[in-house]
Structures are given as C-alpha cells and as structure tokens.
C-alpha cells in the first residue's frame, strides 16, 4: 500500500471530523492505542476486536468505548473485549469452636480465629473486589506473658510483692486459659556515664549506705517463658535491686530485646503479652548522645548469656522503631506504672497500637488485678491492619460488629466490646487504579493487631486483553510488517506510529504534517497540549488520569470549567471542552443556577408572591416595596384590604376618596356584587389565594368584600348593601341620666348620715372614758369647806 494514499486518507478523515472526538465518552477521550490500554481507562470501557469495525481513516482509539456505544456502532458482542476481575478463595478453614471443659486440647497452630486465610484477587483497573472476613475470639486461647520489671533502687518494695507473682498469676489466669506461660526479665540502665557511676566501688554496689545491691546492668532475661509458676517464684526471689544515677530508665532497650529475641524469650505463636513495670520515665532515641553513643539502635537481638551486651554501643530505640517491632511480633504491651507517671505513659499508649496503661500501687500489690483488667481490655477489641500496598492499589474496610453495629472509614477497621466466643465480620474492598509497571502478582497481608494469624491476599492484575495472546507479530496487515496485529488492530513496533504503523517517528515532524495540527493556522501545535503524530494530534496525558485533554487540536479539556462552591461545574454537571454541560434543572456557566421553583413559592402558592421572578431558586423582587425570600414582606404596605378599600368603595358605592378618579384608577379588577356575606367565596372552596376584608366608610358604615387573583385575573366580590349602625334612643338615655343623678344624691346623703353616726359614737365613747378616769369621790362636793376650826395647845399635858 502506498504511504501517500494512507496519509491522504488519514488526513481526510481528520479534516472531515469522522468520529473525531466523541467528547461525551471518557473511553474515547483516553485515546487508547491498544486493547490493554483501553481496559485500564475505566471499568466501563471495552475494545472492539472486529477487524472491519473502523472505516478508512478512523483512529485506533475509536475502538475503545463504553459497551453500549460499541453495540450501537454494530460491534458484535462476541468481538467486544471486556475482561472482568474476580475472587478465588484458596484457603477457607472455619474458625475454631473450642471450649475449656472439653478434654481434647488443641495446639496453638490448630486454632483458627480468622477466616478465610488466603485469597487470590484478579483486579481490573477501576473495578473493586470485595470479600468478607470473619473473626471469632477462641475460647481457652493460649497466652504467653513476659513480666519486664524495673530493678532500680526505688522498686525495692515492689520486688518483694512480685516474688510470688508466678503461682498467684497462674491461679488467676486459669479462669481465662488453661495454657498459660510466664517469663521474667529485668532492666536498669545503660552501663556508661552519666547514667550510672563508673567508679570501681559503685560498679560492684551502686547503692549508698549499708544497702546490698547487685551490679548495674541494661537488661537481663531472668526466666524464659515457662508454665512452672514455682520456678518463676524461685528465680525472682533470687533477684536483687540495683541502682543508677538519673531518674529515667533504660526500659526501651529492654522492650526492644524482648520483642526481637523470640527464641531466647520463648515466644509461641499465641497471644503475647508484655507487662512493663516501672515507677520512672524512659530514655529514647537521641538520649544516648549524653553517654557518647551515637549509633542508632539496629533492632537486632544482642543477648549473650541472657544479658544485653550492646547497650554501650547502640542508642536507645525510637518510639516508632518500637511500634514497628512490637507490631511485627504481635506483642501487646501493658504499662504498669505508678500514679505519678500515668500521663506520660498514657501519651505513649496512644502511639503504640494494642497497648494499655494500668496504675501500679506504690508496692505493686495490685499487679495481678492490673494485668487481668488490662488483658480483658486489650482482647475485647480487634483492629485490622494491612501491609504495604502496591502503587495504585487502595483498600477500604467496613465492620459489622456486635449487635449489628456498622463502622466505616477508620472505624471500619475495628470492633470493640468483643467477648470470648463472639463473632464479628468485615467487608474489605480492594481496588487498583492502574496496572503495575512490571505486571507481576503482588501479595498483601491483613491481620488483627496483637494476633499471630493473618490473611494472605494475592493480587493478580489484568494488564492486557485475552486476545493479545493471539497476536500476529510482524503482520502483513500492518504497514510493511511494522507491527503486531492483535485484537483487530496493529500494535506498532518501536519507532513506528499511526493506525497501521505507517509512520516512522523520524518522519512525523515535517512542516506539511505539522500544519494539520495547528488550529486556525496558528503557531501552537496541538494547542501546546499534545504531539502531532502523522498529521494528527495525540493529546498529552496528565498525572491525574481523570483530567483529560481532547479535541481535534487538543484544545479541549475536562478540568478548566467554571467552579461553584469549589466544585467543578458546581457538582451539577460535567466539563466538556472547558464548558459546563449542566444536569437537568440546572443552568449557568458553573451549573450553579437551579431551575427548581419550589424554593420560590410563597404561602399563597404563587411564585415569588406574584411580585418577582425566580432566578436560580432565589426570588428577585420586581416591586421595590416587597422583600424577603418569597417577596412576601412589605414593611411599608398597608395590607391587601386597606390597599384596595378606596377602589372597592368608589366602584361599588360611588363614594370614598377616589370617587372622582374611580374610572381611571380602579379598573384593574373585576367587580361582582352579592346580596349578603353567605354568597361571598369561602377560602375552603377555592384553589387560589383569597382574602376576606371588612372596612368602614366615612359614615361609620361597614362594607364587606373579598379580593383574589385567579388565572392572573383580579376578582372582587362585594356585599351590595352597607351595614350601618342604628341611631340612638333618646328617652332611655334621659331617663338613665336622671335616675343616675337621683341615685348619686341618695348615695351621698346616706354616706353623710353614716359619717355623722360614726362621729357621734366616737364622741360619746370619749366622754365615757374620761368619766371613768375621774380622781374624786362622786358623793362629796369637791369645793365644800367645814366651818369648824380645831386648835390644840402644845403645852397641855393632860392634867
């Protein structure tokens, strides 16, 4: 085939616009050049593998479209490539129903708490695959507990109470599990200055006075995990207190060794509990510089003869490093600390998943209750975590917990308040946004924090169509054998481009071909948004696959449209060629104008109360006197009745203020007279708003009318007779006045008489009172004097 013929045919198709853009389809916009590229665009995209599907000059990318469009364009269903993903469960062992009172005892590896255990997911880009995961807390599940204790001098009295912890804790844990093991370790501090005193005497006995203490050490594994409580008691009883100089202790070094030295500690694949007991704070990464230690902690096991030997060489581990190691080894931590350091360790708990904090009494007498409570708290919650996800893969969780309580988002990863024997489930969706570069299967693991079981998920990616395996290399159907004919089209060899691989990349940058890629004979090739290939623009791809350039000259895109509320096209339309194509009932450059009128309806059922227009769901009042969301508020309006009173009065009764201008000012309504009020329209009988009015004229006569608007016609029904008050009756008024005057006079006389009687009675009572208070005998005259005078001789002696 002549190259010139092909080029002219292709150019003719481009210029004629035959199936050029199909801007409505995201599949077309992707400009996919092969079936593999097409199925990566979207879940809805398919590829037509029919060799005769395209007409002369059509681009290969026209084969990629949504399924319905391909069928409408007469592509046979059997020729449409649309591979789908799927789920295959490889290992689905049921969860274990185990009870303590059953004689048969299962090994830890025989107990299953999570189902299924292994799946294979086949993922196609944009198509999520969802599976159910079941979790059930097994009864009588084995527990390994390692007690890590601070043996600095301040913990002397605590050591005494811990010496019998082994048998006591064994006895208490029988209520939870019949398979319980316990171990013991201790720590003090790094054995360098300034953490301890390095004088020879203090290295032997770091305590002052007569106290007998053991030499300082960083971490010592005293007892490997064992089911013999007596052995725990014996070994712990032999321990001695040590000492150091500063208050924070080197507990992080000890926790790291306990986590990574699995063989030395004796951890099994069961529930692993680490009890960290101290009455002080902790050193962390960076503090080692005080002692000249600058190498970061390597997270490896360095126990020799059960002693940590590299404390002087490696710095303390960081909190993040500890979190990683504790999670990797499924260890749940219980911080048993005194009241003083509760705030510090509660903050630490928030950083370490599946950890708890308990308040330790001053002498550790409550340590058993603390451990039991903390274990119940930790085991009552299940939290799922997953390993590193491949690039472009996302995972979402939905939990169905106890009593049917559902959680999504971050809460979809966990369930709380789970008792032994309770079963909960999770819906897990995994979606791939693109095919990985190597196309090889990936493996991710999902596990509940603090448990040793996990779900292995193998991810297979659909990166190409099945028909690609049947491709014909160096096919004669491609121009001079410069491509592989697969899925009905040519897949060009390196260095070749074009629908039939007819162009060499070295030939496409010519002035003649580039002219076909300039819009309106401008200077920009493909609007600076694409490359000119064989005289046809191939638009650039953006980092965000949802953002697409399109158009004959790549002049269009779907991300540069107007926005409203920070949403493209207001969230009510789609962006096509930098213009918003609005959904139904929306308009405007940003689709931010709603055509719905429900929000504009006034109480009378009219749009904007008949005094405005509804624009974008908001009333624009045309009458400046009216305002409000539906133009119903009029602060200066007299009201409907008062507004039309004068016109109704002049037209019905030829009276009122507008009597002389009635014909000019009051012809805007239709007047209908009725004999009485019963003949007037009633509100319950009407399907349109109606107002009843009662007004008074200058002669104090009442007249009644109704005002309504029906089908844009104003109607007034008025009672044809006035209701005037009757004249006054003079005789009753005069009689009433006279009777009133007489009654008032009689009342005044009675009041005067009553007052006089009261006054007289008061005077008489006063007289009677003075009479009773008189000081002389009422039988003698007070002014009487006797006429006889008696004289006595003082010298008379009676002889």
TrEMBL record:
Keyword check for rRNA-binding: no
Domain Integrin beta subunit VWA: 34-465
UniProt membrane topology term: Single-pass type I membrane protein
Keywords: Calcium, Cell adhesion, Cell junction, Cell membrane, Cell projection, Disulfide bond, EGF-like domain, Glycoprotein, Integrin, Magnesium, Membrane, Metal-binding, Myogenesis, Phosphoprotein, Receptor, Repeat, Signal, Transmembrane, Transmembrane helix
Domain Integrin beta subunit tail: start-end pairs: 641-729
SMART domains: INB (SM00187), Integrin_b_cyt (SM01241), Integrin_B_tail (SM01242)
InterPro entries, A to Z: EGF_extracell (IPR013111), EGF_integrin_1 (IPR040622), EGF_integrin_2 (IPR057073), Integrin_beta_N (IPR033760), Integrin_bsu (IPR015812), Integrin_bsu_cyt_dom (IPR014836), Integrin_bsu_tail (IPR012896), Integrin_bsu_tail_dom_sf (IPR036349)
Membrane-spanning segments: 730-752
All residue ranges annotated as the Integrin beta subunit cytoplasmic domain in the record: 753-799
Protein's UniProt name: Integrin beta
Record organism: Pagothenia borchgrevinki
């Amino acid at each position: 085939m002549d190259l010139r013929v092909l080029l002219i045919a292709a150019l003719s198709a481009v210029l004629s616009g035959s199936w050029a853009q199909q801007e409505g389809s995201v599949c077309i916009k992707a400009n996919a050049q092969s079936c593999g590229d097409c199925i990566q665009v979207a879940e809805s995209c398919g590829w037509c593998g029919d060799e005769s599907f395209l007409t002369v000059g059509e681009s290969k990318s026209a084969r990629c479209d949504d399924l319905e469009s391909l069928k409408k364009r007469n592509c046979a269903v059997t020729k449409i490539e649309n591979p789908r993903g799927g789920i295959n469960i490889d290992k689905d062992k049921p969860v274990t129903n185990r009870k303590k009172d059953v004689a048969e005892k299962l090994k830890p590896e025989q107990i299953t708490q999570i189902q299924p255990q292994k799946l294979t997911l086949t993922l196609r880009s944009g198509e999520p695959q969802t599976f159910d995961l079941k979790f059930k807390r097994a009864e009588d599940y084995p527990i390994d507990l390692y007690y890590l204790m601070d043996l600095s001098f301040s913990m002397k009295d605590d050591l005494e109470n811990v010496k019998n912890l082994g048998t006591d804790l064994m006895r208490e844990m029988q209520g939870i599990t019949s398979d319980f093991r316990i171990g013991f370790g201790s720590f003090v501090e790094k054995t360098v200055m300034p953490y301890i005193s390095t004088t020879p005497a203090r290295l032997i006995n770091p305590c002052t006075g007569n106290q007998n203490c053991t030499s300082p050490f960083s971490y010592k594994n005293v007892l490997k995990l064992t089911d013999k409580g007596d052995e725990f008691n014996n070994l712990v009883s032999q321990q001695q207190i040590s000492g150091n100089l500063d208050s924070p202790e080197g507990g992080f070094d000890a926790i790291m060794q306990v986590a990574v030295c699995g063989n030395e500690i004796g951890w099994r694949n069961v529930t692993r509990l680490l009890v960290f007991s101290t009455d002080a704070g902790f050193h962390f990464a960076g503090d080692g510089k005080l002692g000249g230690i600058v190498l970061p902690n390597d997270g490896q096991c360095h126990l020799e003869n059960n002693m940590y030997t590299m404390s002087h060489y490696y710095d303390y581990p960081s909190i993040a490093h500890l979190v990683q190691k504790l999670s990797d080894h499924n260890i749940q931590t219980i911080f048993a600390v005194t009241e003083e350091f509760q705030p510090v360790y509660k903050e630490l708990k928030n950083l370490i998943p599946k950890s708890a904090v308990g308040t330790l009494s001053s002498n550790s007498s409550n340590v058993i209750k603390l451990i039991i409570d903390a274990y119940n708290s930790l085991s009552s919650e299940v939290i799922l975590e997953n390993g590193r996800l491949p690039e472009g893969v996302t995972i979402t969780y939905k939990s169905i917990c106890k009593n049917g309580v559902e959680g999504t988002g971050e809460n979809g990863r966990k369930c709380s308040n789970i008792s032994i024997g309770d079963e909960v489930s999770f819906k897990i969706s995994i979606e791939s946004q693109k095919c990985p570069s190597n196309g090889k299967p990936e493996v991710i693991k999902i596990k509940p924090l603090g448990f040793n079981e996990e779900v292995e998920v193998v991810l297979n990616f659909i990166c190409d169509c099945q028909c690609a395996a049947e491709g014909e290399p160096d096919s004669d159907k491609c121009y001079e054998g410069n491509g592989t004919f697969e899925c009905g089209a040519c897949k060009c060899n390196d260095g070749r481009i074009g629908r039939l691989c007819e162009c060499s990349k070295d030939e496409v940058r010519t002035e003649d071909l580039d002219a076909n890629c300039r819009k309106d004979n401008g200077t920009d090739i493909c609007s600076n948004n694409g490359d000119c290939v064989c005289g046809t623009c191939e638009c650039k791809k953006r980092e965000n696959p949802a953002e697409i350039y399109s158009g004959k000259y790549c002049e269009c895109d779907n991300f540069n449209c107007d926005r409203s509320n920070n949403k493209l096209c207001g969230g009510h339309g789609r962006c096509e060629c930098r213009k918003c194509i609005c959904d139904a009932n929306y308009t405007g450059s940003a689709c931010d104008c709603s055509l719905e009128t429900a929000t504009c309806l006034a109480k009378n059922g009219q749009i904007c109360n008949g005094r405005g227009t509804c624009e974008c769901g908001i009333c624009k009042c045309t009458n400046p006197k009216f305002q409000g969301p539906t133009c119903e508020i009029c602060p200066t309006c007299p009201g409907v009745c008062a507004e039309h009173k004068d016109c109704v009065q002049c037209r019905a009764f030829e009276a009122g203020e507008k009597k002389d201008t009635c014909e000019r000012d009051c012809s805007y309504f239709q007047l209908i007279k009725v004999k009485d009020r019963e003949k007037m329209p009633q509100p319950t009988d009407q399907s349109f708003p109606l107002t009843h009015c009662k007004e008074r004229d200058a002669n104090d006569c009442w007249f009644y009318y109704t005002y309504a608007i029906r089908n844009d016609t104003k109607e007034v029904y008025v009672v044809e007779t006035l209701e005037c008050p009757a004249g006054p009756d003079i005789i009753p008024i005069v009689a009433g006045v006279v009777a009133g005057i007489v009654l008032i006079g009689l009342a005044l006389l009675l009041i005067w008489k009553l007052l006089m009687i009261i006054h007289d009675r008061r005077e008489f009572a006063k007289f009677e009172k003075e009479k009773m208070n008189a000081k002389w005998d009422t039988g003698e005259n007070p002014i009487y004097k006797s006429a006889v005078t008696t004289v006595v001789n003082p010298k008379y002696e009676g002889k």
